[in-house]
């Protein structure tokens, strides 16, 4: 009976020792592999980011070009965003180029009345539905103006108003028969499925009309939004200084500016990052205007009526409110990366959202994307949209500390076991007799098992 109890105790200890060794070996292998893998995706990228010299103060970037090729070439070596860092350099190359400048002025316009907020339509699935002429009954009754690419046609009638001469229309194709329209390519005017290709010479302008300026003294352009209002004064929201007052300007002028964000609340209009402020005679807008006229009038009169009056040569100090973009430009053209490495490892379609939100380059008479970014004073080649040194250091310490501690602890346990664990003649693992102050009872049991 006593011998059976001793055997049971010994084999129970054997199971505990064997389990401990297995766990320690597994942790040692996993932590070693983790350190090797994390060297590529965490340690080296963090080191490069910390040594990049990029400033932590954000500036403003405006997208000026979106370039996409089917494969990486000499001119397109690296995409602005890749969904998996180990896959960089393969597949299509998609780049965003931006203009980098200092921040504009944040302003709160107070005492605003007669506020009119106009949202200009843009090319999206809601305003510009697509028709796939390669499918049955998709193009049989198309009506309006379309831009087609290899049989995929986008209806731009709600977004653009176009004019052309009748002689520029080619003979119509009857899209009731699918074979006639599966290869449509170019600009087409369609009438009940009869589509005629338009030759060069047609002119289009965006449908953003009926913008009132009569009785207004403020016109703000923000992305695809336009706001007009009559306001009492403007306060710099960063320092509380009054930078504009209605009574100090000519009643015939309109303050025009381009801002990144626009919010309205009661009698307050809050705008951020405003640039290119100008006083333009209200009479030039004829009481009611549209986007095309606003852009044309601003290009003709904007610099002449600058808000900061820095174009006037006198002894006054240069003003810094609502500055013109060409005076605060840092880099005229730089490649934009989502972060310092130009890639993410989350596999959550971050790059898709990145290109959608920041890739609008002003084509089709739309406004280019404007957003905060970070740059290095000694390197104009690229800028990044995400940069947080505190977060980088925290991630580095976390992913370095945890596997390192596991590796040290597991290896220490394995070393300790190699010094204090022995194997009996029956193959059972047990603590060696001379180690750790084993009890006399255990020593006698081990001796009996060895003798048998």
Helical content stands at 25-40%
Strand content: 25-35%
What's the mean pLDDT score? 85
Radius of gyration (CA) equals 35 Å
Largest sheet: 9 strands, mixed
Low-pLDDT segments: 313-317, 436-440
Give the class from helix and strand content and strand pairing: alpha+beta
Distance between the termini: 16 Å
Task: Count up the helices.
Answer: 5
- Find the count of extended strands (DSSP E, 2+ residues): 26
Shape: flat
Overview of this structure, please?
It is a single chain. By secondary structure, the chain is α+β, with helices and mostly antiparallel strands. It contains 5 helices and 26 strands. The strands form 6 sheets. Strands 3, 4, 14, 15, 16, 17, 18, 19 and 20 form a 9-stranded mixed β-sheet that branches. Helix 1 runs antiparallel to helix 4 (389-420) and helix 1 crosses helix 5. The longest helix is centred in the N-terminal third of the chain and has 49 residues, at 2-50. It is flat.
Question: What's the helix and strand layout?
Answer:
Elements: H1 2-50, E1 59-69, E2 93-101, E3 105-110, E4 113-119, E5 130-132, E6 144-149, E7 152-155, E8 160-163, E9 173-174, E10 186-191, E11 194-197, E12 203-206, E13 211-212, E14 218-222, E15 225-230, E16 233-236, E17 242-245, E18 253-258, E19 261-265, E20 268-281, E21 288-289, H2 291-301, E22 329-337, H3 350-358, E23 370-376, E24 379-384, H4 389-420, E25 421-423, E26 429-431, H5 440-451
Helix pairs in contact: 1-4, 1-5
């Amino acid at each position: 009976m006593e011998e059976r109890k001793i055997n049971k105790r010994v084999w129970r200890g054997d199971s505990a020792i064997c389990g401990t060794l297995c766990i320690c070996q597994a942790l040692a292998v996993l932590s070693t592999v983790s350190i090797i893998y994390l060297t590529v995706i965490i340690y080296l990228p963090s080191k490069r980011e910390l040594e990049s010299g990029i400033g932590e103060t954000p500036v403003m970037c405006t997208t000026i070009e979106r370039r996409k090729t089917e494969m990486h070439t000499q001119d397109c070596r690296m995409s602005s965003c890749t969904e998996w860092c180990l896959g960089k350099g393969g597949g299509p190359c998609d780049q965003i180029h931006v203009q980098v400048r200092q921040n504009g002025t944040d302003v709160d316009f107070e005492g605003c009345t007669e506020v009119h907020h106009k949202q200009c339509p843009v090319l999206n699935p809601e305003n510009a539905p697509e028709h796939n002429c390669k499918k049955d009954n998709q193009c049989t009754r198309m009506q309006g103006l379309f831009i087609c690419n290899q049989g995929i046609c986008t209806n731009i009638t709600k977004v653009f108003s176009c004019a052309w001469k009748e002689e520029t229309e080619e003979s119509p194709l009857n899209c009731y028969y699918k074979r006639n329209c599966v290869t449509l390519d170019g600009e087409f005017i369609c009438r009940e499925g009869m589509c005629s290709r338009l030759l060069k010479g047609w002119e289009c302008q965006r449908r953003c009309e009926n913008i009132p300026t009569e009785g207004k003294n403020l016109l703000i352009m923000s992305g695809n939004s336009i706001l007009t209002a009559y306001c009492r004064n403007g306060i710099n929201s960063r320092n509380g200084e009054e930078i504009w007052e209605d009574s100090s300007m000519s009643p015939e002028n309109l303050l025009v500016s381009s801002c990144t964000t626009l919010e309205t609340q009661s009698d307050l209009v809050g705008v951020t990052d405003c640039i290119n402020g100008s006083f333009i005679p209200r009479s030039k807008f004829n009481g009611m205007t549209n986007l095309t006229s606003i852009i044309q009038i601003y290009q003709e009169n904007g610099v002449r009526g600058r808000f900061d009056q820095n174009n006037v040569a006198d002894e006054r100090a240069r003003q810094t409110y609502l500055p013109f973009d060409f005076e605060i430009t840092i880099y005229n053209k730089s490649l934009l990366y989502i972060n310092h490495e130009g890639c993410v490892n989350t596999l959550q379609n971050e790059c898709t959202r990145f290109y959608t939100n920041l890739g609008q380059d002003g084509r089709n008479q739309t406004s280019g994307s404007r957003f905060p970014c970070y740059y290095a004073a000694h390197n104009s080649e690229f800028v990044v949209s995400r940069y947080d040194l505190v977060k980088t250091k925290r991630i580095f310490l976390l992913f370095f500390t945890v596997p390192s501690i596991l590796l040290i602890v597991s290896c220490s346990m394995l070393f300790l076991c190699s010094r204090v664990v022995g194997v009996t003649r029956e193959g059972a693992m047990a603590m060696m007799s001379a180690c750790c102050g084993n009890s006399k009872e255990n020593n006698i049991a081990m001796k009996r098992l060895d003798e048998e």
